[in-house]
Amino acid sequence: MKYNPNFHNRQSIRLKGYDYSQEGFYFVTICIWQKECLLGVVDNQEMFLNKYGEIVNSNWFNLKKVYPYINLDAFIVMPNHIHGIIEITDDNQHHTRHGLPEIIRALKTFSARRINRLRQMKGVPVWQRGYYEHIIRNETSLNSIREYIFNNPFNWCNDEIYTENLFSFPKQFNIKGIGNVINNQKN
Question: Can you tell me the distance from the alpha carbon of 39 to that of 153, in angstroms, rounded to the nearest whole number?
């Protein structure tokens, strides 16, 4: 498709002039490509990770090994997105300190490669382009966001990213003409 500035005009949500490598807390939300429920399911207000969700979870916690100047705070993997808080610290021991965009790029790249290797689908998008980020400016906001992350599985059906209701099936259903009961199991 040829570039059309009226159609292909992406606006940045980043704060102009802000240095995203500076010390502070950042809240991020990253969505799966086309909001597909790829990472697991919420059942009875509890999140159950599948093998892809486990990969994302593992890659999140590996960020600390790659970027030792960060601290990982509240975090949750949901069926089609993740929420997390990353603190960039003032660690003078490291001469190169990458900012939030580099940290998120690494998380998305490493997890997508592992997921696609497992799916045997090279180069297929796993994550949506971009992500949402919010600079956390005070402790009240930090605690409120932590609570939001913690309560995400409880509020899944009310989440704006919730898509399961479009494709939900009962635990058992009967396909006419075959006569067998098929169990709809979690991945």
Answer: 13
Residue 75 and residue 186: Cα distance in Å, rounded?
22
- Cα–Cα nearest to 28, from 106, 81, 96: 81
Q: Of 83, 112, 99, whose CA–CA distance to 14 is shortest?
A: 99
Angle, to 10 degrees, between the axis of helix 51-66 and the axis of helix 100-119?
Answer: 140
The whole-angstrom separation of Cα 150 and Cα 143 is 10
For 80, the token pair is 């089609």
Q: 0.85 cut: is pTM over it?
A: no
Regions of the chain with pLDDT less than 70: 1-17, 92-95, 159-187
Of 128, 146, 163, residue with least CA distance to 72: 146
Are 64 and 78 a contacting pair, CB within 8 Å? no
Q: What is the identity of the amino acid at 132? A: Y
| pLDDT score at 173 | 39
Pairwise CA distance, residues 43 & 90, whole Å: 40
d(CA 153, CA 45): 5
